[in-house]
Specification:
The protein is about 70% helix and about 5% strand.
Length: about 260
């Protein structure tokens, strides 16, 4: 009799332990699922925070200030004078390097080094960035009417080549910053090269290049922010919407859990 009671006692303890373990596993699953949804909803890829605007705002502010402040105008002139003293060869690589970071993104993806977005999505983002860059720089050139250093025309500010170069570099940074940081920042060297050669080719002042860099970075940030809206208009899937259906068993109650994140 004692053996039977002892056996029943240990059986009850074992069953209780099994139920407790099941409850614990279900709670962990629910917590993990909630954590997944929370992390998904907190993805800031397509959010436009003020922190992302600090650098482009500072660069644009300097560029605009260089049009009016005497000391900055003098810096433009002295920089260009120093360049002319060395008589550098005028090469046109800047016509190609402005797009180089974006070309690298597509090339790397083709060789299996995947960025944050697939071909369709990144094409929408980059295309939007280029449209914004053009929509900003072209009207500004005609409105400001700053004469180029070589006096060829009055379309100097801001530097369109530099704007495109930094828009492309920012695009590369945003695509790879979470997976390969060193790779993500490599595009900026090509963007700087483009800006420097716009001055070496006597096409832009220093302030034009700095302002162009700011407009380029801003354009790409706006493109990432606009992407979910454009994607929705094109009938794409909403990235921040997720549905999860999962069975659960807890404290003797079974059921189905339904979670939707907007």
């Amino acid at each position: 009799m004692k053996c039977l009671l002892s056996g029943l006692f240990f059986m009850l303890i074992s069953l209780h332990g099994i139920h407790a373990q099941q409850d614990s596993l279900q709670v962990e699953k629910i917590q993990d699922s909630t954590s997944i949804i929370k992390n998904y909803s907190e993805d800031k890829t397509h959010q436009l925070s003020y922190k992302k605007l600090i650098i482009p705002a500072a660069l644009i502010s300097y560029g605009v200030a260089s049009l009016a402040i005497d000391d900055l105008k003098q810096l433009n002139a002295s920089t260009q004078y120093e360049i002319s003293e060395h008589k550098p060869d005028h090469i046109r690589l800047d016509n190609y390097t402005q797009f180089a970071p974006a070309v690298l993104v597509y090339g790397l993806n083709a060789f299996g080094v995947e960025g944050k977005h697939n071909f369709r999505d990144r094409s929408i983002i980059y295309g939007t960035s280029m449209l914004i860059t053009s929509a900003i720089t072209i009207p500004l050139k005609h409105a400001v009417k700053e004469e180029r250093p070589d006096q060829s025309n009055t379309l100097s500010f801001p530097s369109g080549h530099t704007a495109i170069a930094f828009a492309s570099a920012q695009f590369m940074f945003r695509e790879y910053k979470d997976t390969n940081f060193l790779l993500s920042i490599s595009g900026y060297s090509l963007a700087v090269f483009t800006g420097v050669y716009r001055m070496l080719n006597n096409k832009h002042w220093f302030g034009d290049v700095i302002g162009g860099a700011g407009f380029g970075i801003l354009s790409t940030e706006l493109a990432y922010w606009l992407y979910p809206k454009i994607n929705n208009l094109l009938g794409g899937k909403k990235e921040k919407s997720q549905v999860m259906i999962m069975p659960y068993y807890q404290k003797g109650n079974a059921g189905i859990g339904f979670v939707k994140n907007f």
